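Reply to thread "Modeling small-molecule complexes from scratch"

Following up on the discussion above, here's a worked example others can learn from. I took a protein sequence and the SMILES for pyridoxal-5'-phosphate and predicted the complex. Inputs first:
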Amino acid sequence: MIVDLRSDTVTKPTPAMLQAMMQAEVGDDVFGEDPTVNNLEAKCAALLGMDAAVYCPSGTMTNQIGIKILTQPYNEVICYKGAHIYKYEGGGLAGNSLVSVRLLEGDRGRISVKEIEPNINNTNDAHLPVTSVVALENTVVREAGSYYTLDQVKAISAFARAHGLKMHLDGARLFNALAETGDQAVEYGKYFDSISICLSKGLGAPVGSVLVCKKELEPKARRMRKAFGGGMRQAGFLAAAGIYALDNHITRLKEDHARAKTLGKELSKLPWVKSVMPVDTNIVIFSVADSTTPEKVLAQLDGRQVKAIRFGPQEIRLVTHLDFDDRMLDKAIQVFKRISA
Ligand SMILES: *Cc1c(COP(=O)(O)O)cnc(C)c1O
C-alpha cells in the first residue's frame, strides 16, 4: 500500500465519479455548446453567489485570468509574500498581466487592512505603480492551510473597495476553509470581483478549476481563457467530475482535516521533528531536527512507501485527501515512528 501525502491533487476519480463522467452529455464548449460545462459553470456561480463562471483546465489559469481581467499593465497587486499567484505560478503575473506585486508579511498568510493600508500607492506620484487589486488566498497553502473567516474577508473587501481596489480570491481550497468556519459559500461572491476554485484538490476531480466572476467580466475572462490556450472542446466529460465532486465531496472535507490534525499531533511527539506548524485544515507542514535533512527523511519515508515533499530548507509537507483513509493514516504513523535521524 502506497500512502501518497505529497498533495491533495493525487486523487483518482472514484467509480461513481467515473460513471458520472462516462455518462456526461457533451458538446463543443468553445462554441458554448457543452451542456455539462454550462451546468457546472451555472452551479459554481450560484454556489458562490455570483452571476458568471468560466471552466478552466487549472487553478493557475483561473488565477492568471482573474488577475488579468482586473488589472492594466504596470499596475500593482497586493498579496501575501508566499501567495500561490506570486510564488508558484511560474512568474505568470509578470508575463501575463505585466504587473508588479506588493508582498505583505501576513499573519500566517492572512493579510489585514492594517497591513494593506500603507501599501496602497499614491496614484498622483508617477514613480509608483497604480495599486489595483488585493488578492487573498483561502486557505493559505504556504502556511499549512490557515484560513480567513468571512468577517476578516468582509473587512478587507470594504476597505479595498473604498479605495477603488478590486478583490481577487485564490480559493483553490475555499471549501476546506468553509468546512472549519461554517461560513456560507454563497456569501463570498459579495466580497470579490473574481474567485478561483479548484475541483482537483480536496474535492477529488481529476482536472479542472472554475473562475467565478461578475457578469460584466465574463466576456473578458472567456477571451483570456482562449488567449491562454484554455478553450477546451468536449470538456463536459471533465466537468461532470467537477459537478460530482461538488455534490458529493464537500461534506467529507472535515475527515481530511481530522486526519491531518492526527498526523500533526503524532509528528510533534517524535524526536526527529523539530516543530509542526498549527494544523488548521488538510495541510501539515513540519521542520525536521537540525541533525537531519528533509531529503534524508523523505528517502526513508519513500523506502517504506510513504510519499511526502520538501517544502522549505528544513520543512516537509503532507496533505490529506479523498484517497487517504484511516488504514493509511495508521500506516503513516507507524512509518514515522521508525524514522531515524
Ligand atoms: C494548487 C493551487 C492552485 C492552482 O494549481 P493548479 O495546479 O494550477 O491547478 C492555486 N492556488 C493554490 C493556493 C493552490 O494550492
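What I'd highlight from this example: The chain has two domains: 9-248, 252-338. The first strand starts at residue 3 and ends at 4. Questions welcome below.
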